[in-house]
Structures are given as C-alpha cells and as structure tokens.
C-alpha cells in the first residue's frame, strides 16, 4: 500500500468484476461444488501442457473455488496447476487450502516464492502456512521476509499451536477513549498503513488495556462531536492470547461475536480475532465428534495415507483387545453352545442391539459435553433421562424379539430369556453410554476419543453374559 | 426509537456496564460454563420463593448465560425463573434459548407477553419464536403486534422452514450507486429508523437489484466525495430466499462472509443474513453427523423424552431387522457350531472388527460429503484410497488374530481361517463404508441418516459368512 491518495488505494484493492456479477453456472453445480466436467477440462488441459488454456479456465474462479480445485486434483497434478496459474495463487487461495494440501504445495515451492506469498498474507494465515514447515525451511522463509513481517510471524509462532495467539491478526484499530467520532474517521482516512479489514474499533486506555469496543455501524450513525467513550460498549469478551482455539470458537458462538480483542497476560491488547477465522474451527470442532468416536482420527481425506492407516489401525488394535475379552465371555459357555447351538445364532442379536443403543446415548452425551450443555448442574437429570429411555426401548425391543423367538422356535422359555437379556443389555448400554463419557470428561480426557471402546466392551460383555447366563440358569442347555 | 437526537438514541442503546468490565469468576468456570454452585444458589432461592434474591443473582449475567441457566434448570423451575426476572427476559435471552426450552416457555406465557417480547426481537428471532406455536396461538400473538412487525413476520413465515427467508433480517441498508461516501454517512446519521446492526451496505439499482456491497471499514476509510460505485465490491455472493439454511451456512463458510444479501425470485434485494445467525447452523449441521450416524436423531438433550424414545426406537427396530438377517447367516452353520463350539466364541471378533473398520470409513466419507470435499471428480481416488487402507489394516489385524488363535488354541488351520476372514471382512468394511454413503448421496438421500444400518449389516453378514464358511471349507467342523 504505497499510494498516497486513499481513494485510489481503496480502488486498487477492490476487485473490479465488470458490471455483471460472475456467472458460475458452467463451473459450479447447484450445491456450489465444482462440476466434474469442469475439473475434467482442467485436467485434460494440464495433461496436454496447455498452460494458457488452464489459466483461462481457472481465472474466473473465486479463490475459495481455486482452493477446492487443488483439493480435487491428484497430488501430482497440484504443483503443475500451481505453476500454470502463479499470479492467481493469491493469499486467499492459500488461506482456503486444506492443511495437508497446503503443506505438500509449500514443500514443493522454493523459499523465496513462499516468502513472497507470506508477505501478502495476514499474520494468522502466514503462520498457518509456515507452522508446518520444518525448522530449517521455516528459517529460510523467515530470512526472506521484511523485518516487520518477520517479527510478527516469529512472535505468533512463539504461542502454543491452536492457541488464540496463532489465530489472531495484529492488524486492528485501537484508539483512546477521549477521541471523538469525527477524529476517528479523520484518523482512519489519513493513515494508510492501517488495517483495511475490521468490523469493530477497540478503545484502549494509556496502558493499552481495552476498555470498550465499538461496532462500525455505531460510529457511522453517530454525529462527529460525540466521544467514543459515549458510544462504545464497555462489556466486551476479551480473549486471552493463550486460550485454546476450540474455547475461542465456543465464545464467538455463545456471544454471537463478529470480532474480539485478544489480550496478553498483562491485559494489554495485542491482536484481534474475526469471526471468519473462527468459522472453520467451529465447523471442524463440531464435525470431529463423529470421526473421533469412530476412531478415524481427524478423518481428513487429504491426509497422507500412511498417517491415516496408523491412526485407524491403532484404534482397531485396541478394539481387537476388547473383542477378545468379550469373546472370552462366550468361551465360558462353550459347553452350553455345543449342546444347544441356537444360542450362538441368537447371541449376536443381544450384543449388537446393546452396541447400537450404547452408541446412540454416547453420541448424544459427547455432543452435549462438547457444546457445554451438559454440566455438573444437570448431570443427574440426564442420567435419569437416559435411564428412562433405555428402559422404554429395552422393554419394547425385548418384547419384540422375545415374542418373535418364542413363536419362530416354538420355545417360550427361550423367548423369555432373550427378551430379558435384551432389557438388561439396553440398561447397560444407557448407563455406560452416559457414565463413561461423563467420567472421562471429569478426568479431563476427551470423551469423543476414548469412550466408544469402553461402551462397546460393556455392551458386548453384558450382551453375551446376560443371554448365555440366563439360558443356562433357565436350564435351556 | 423515538428520540430525535441520534447521539442520545445511540447512548440509550449502548449497554453501560460501569467503568469495570463484568467479573464472572464466581459465576462461570474456566470453560465459561455456569458453575454448579451458582446454579444451586439460584435453585435454592427459587425454592424458597426469594424472587429478589433470584433477581440479584441473575442480573449480572450475560443474556447468553441467562439462556444457559434456563437450560440447566429442571422444566418446572423454568417458568418460575422467568416470572422472577421478567425485565431481564430480553430479546437476546430468547434468541439464545434452545428451541425446545423456548417452545415450552412460550407455551407457558400469555399471548400479550409473547407479543411484547416479539416486538423487541429482530424478524428472524421473532419468527424462530413464533414458528413453533400452533396456528391459533400464532394468530393470537400476531394480532397483538403492530401492523408493520406483523407484516414482516407473516411474510417470513410464508417461506419454507429452514430456508434463507426464515433466517434473514429485513433491517438492512440499501442505497443507490451514485451516492457518495459523504452522502451515505449523512443519510445514516439522519434517519433514525434505519437498522443499527449491519456490517456491510448494499448498493442497488433502480429495480432494487443488488449491484455491489461495501464493508463499513471501506466506507470509513474513503474520503467523502468518492462515489460508492468506486469503493464497492461488485462480486458478491447472493443468497436466494428459498435456499436451505445448510447451503447458506456452507456459502458463508466457504467465502468467509460476514453478511450477505438475500434476493427473491426476481433478483430483488429482500433481506440480509449476518454471520452470527449462521454460526449456530454451521455448528449444528457439522455436529449432527455423529448423532445421525448413531440413529439418535437431532440428539437434543432438551427434546421432550417421548420424541427421543420414538426416534431412537425406530432406528433400533430397523437394526433389529438387520441383526436378525445377520444371525440367520449363523443359523446356516448351526451344525458346524454344535460340532466345534469354539467357532461361536471367535465369530463375534470377525464381525465386530469389520463393524469398527466400516464405521471409520463411513464417518470419514459422510463428513467429506457433507463438507463438499468428496465430489464426482475425486470419488474414484477416494475409493482406491479406502481400498488400500482396508487392505493394509485387514492384513495387519488378520496376521495378529491369526497368530494369536493359532498359538493359543494350538490350531494353525483355525488361525489361518480367522486371519483370512478378517482380511475379507475388512475389505468388505472399506467397500461398503464408501459405496453406501456415496450411492445414497447420488440418490439425494442423506447418507448420515441411513448409511450405518447397511454398512453394519454388510460387515455382520460377511463376518459370519466368511469365518464360518471358511471353517467348514477347511474341514474344521
């Protein structure tokens, strides 16, 4: 931003798309995904080395769609695309790229190219690009940066991963309390080095502690002579610089924030976080439960395959252990099974249904814990609620399977046994489904990661034990 | 907003919290949840009928925390709390309340009270409050509203549920292209009926079609004489009024939007959606996968219990059907099991591990489909990826269990049989885990809702069939 005339400088930054808005009908489908035949055309052009054609195809895309295009291509096509569209590789494209895809691309680019991209990026995006590089490559890139950017990025990298310090931008507007609306507008118009992306202005005292914030719409609607102290909101949510990004995302969501001030240990304003940086995190954190519960790690389809195999295999091996424990319960009843093999036919129904019911409770409880809806204050009520659900569903399913078995096999006693086992195992499922995640949460262990293995073991063991045990007690075998 | 002096009017709206920011240490824990002993103090005061004490306790809370408090209390305590703190029941509290809790509260309040609250709310929040009421109650409330509010709410209710039309606010700023920055600021300062919550100004042509948008920071930084046409961004994401809210949320996320213009079928600007209205949806939609996959419906812990039981039981009954199908496969091998009961002991390991592996793949694929990361363009690559993962994990697990069984039972043939069955079932899990959700997605059926039942059936059937079948082929029984 070297222009002296602010209007010109603003003009230069505003994308000028002509009079007609972009028409994306031939590139995007009705769910706003890139059409497969558009991707095929890009692929064909890449294969034929037609770089100009590639450029013409990609040029009209929004940066977020260019990022999507990279993700849809095969790993070996990505660097070829990047080299065909170098000047379209804007900061926005880099910022929107999937972490793994970005990491791979960054590894394939020379340090000075990365530095050139990093300089256009906001600090938070530059940090996201550099944090994955190994120490030596990071130093090589930092050396290419101008001192001011380097200092900003180095200080961000000093904060823990996934903390507010990594996420925040250092470009924000902070002004003193006694300033008037008019003075603020003049200041914003005159100083061209100021941030261009901001939604609130922060008001600070002499020690640079935030004392209030003011949405831009309030400033635009107030007369020039009014002091900022009289329009600002004093109650604001301050984000400590070391706060975990998941916690930051929960605050933004709970208090419907657009931007928030980040403060250091001494309470000084050091950065701002805006909601667009947080939306991805909200989405990722909310979506990861299903993946963690299943033991699929972060479940990113762009992750290198050996990491995926390792993550999933670890979980499967743990589950193999619990499956062996459950099967050893069946082993106790080998004699009974040899005498009456029908027991082996029916036993998976009891254990499997317990597993299903346990997974339901588990999914609900893990979600409620993650969104802070389940706390000490309502845990007892929730346990009672899940108990009643388990009882109602256990009785219904037990009656259903009991009648079916009694009728099909003409054996009312067998029906009574499997029906009772079903009720018992559903209660086990409900209790384990709530107790396991709640206890893990109290122990500060992420319940989404480790609950399922305990709950499945509980329902498998209880399923086999209650059904086979009752069958033996009833004299069926 | 009847004041003539805009500064005074703004002052009246800005919350004045005194010079010190709120200190929440004794009410909120370190994860920003209400402390259980604070909730207990409110409960005790409610039980003793100490309404003033309840008021004093609740008064310093942020509206979002008051909403949380309602959710943490038992259903019968909520109306008593509401009546003790009537004048704290602001629009923000109502907007933040869980849908089920709000519905219950709204049912307990007389129509004129609801109308009084509805009048303070933005259209979208008022609609959220009224849409759950039955027709007669809705009419009673609408009759109490002033004509302008009633018209806005009625027209919003005419749009489909969960559409952009329900979500949007009708309070937005739309100005003509030829206006200058200075004229816009004067207009905003003078007209007191205008919206106070906005982050962008929309620029429209004579037919009221949006032609561009302008972030407030751009306006504040531009000199007065500059025409809006010269600072506005022409490329903007327009939201059709009938678009589903999930799609709206994906657009906001993909393009990092703060607010967006909503247009009707004729392309006219009819409303705006701001990111704070969308953040809840992003979070809900992303989090619902785990719940839907488990068959727990929307998994809301505040839902009336009979609805929860019905949702979960429906899913369990469907699963009971597939469990019976799987167990009938075991039935084919009853003779073999009677001769060699150890087969019944080991078979749940094969089926169970297949189920675990299938769930992993399923969780990853459902997530990738939901976030538009898996499209036609990369489906083949993903199938190949999942196949290799399934093969690698199947071989590892097969080797592990094969060696264990061969050693423990001194039966190498049995080890070879269970090892091979494990490889086969892992491949089945990988194939079903990706094929089922992809096919359902193509058929426009939500893969999160219905995939798991098919995948589990596939891995159960193949687990039993491959293990018992191979055992018979090998002459083990």
UniProtKB/TrEMBL annotation, chains A, B:
It comes from the Bacteria. Coiled coil: none annotated. The chain crosses the membrane at residues 313-334, 340-366, 387-410, 416-440, 452-476. The keyword Disulfide bond does not apply. The keyword Iron does not apply. InterPro entries: CBS_dom, CBS_dom_sf, Mg_transptr_MgtE_intracell_dom, MgtE_N_sf, MgtE_transporter, SLC41_membr_dom, SLC41_membr_dom_sf. Residues 1-30 are annotated as: Disordered. GO terms for cellular component: plasma membrane. Keywords: CBS domain, Cell membrane, Magnesium, Membrane, Metal-binding, Transmembrane, Transmembrane helix, Transport. It is a multi-pass membrane protein. Residues 232-288 form the CBS domain. GO terms for molecular function: magnesium ion transmembrane transporter activity; metal ion binding. CDD domains: CBS_pair_Mg_transporter. PANTHER family: MAGNESIUM TRANSPORTER MGTE (PTHR43773). Acts as a magnesium transporter. Homodimer. Belongs to the SLC41A transporter family. NCBIfam families: mgtE. This is Magnesium transporter MgtE.
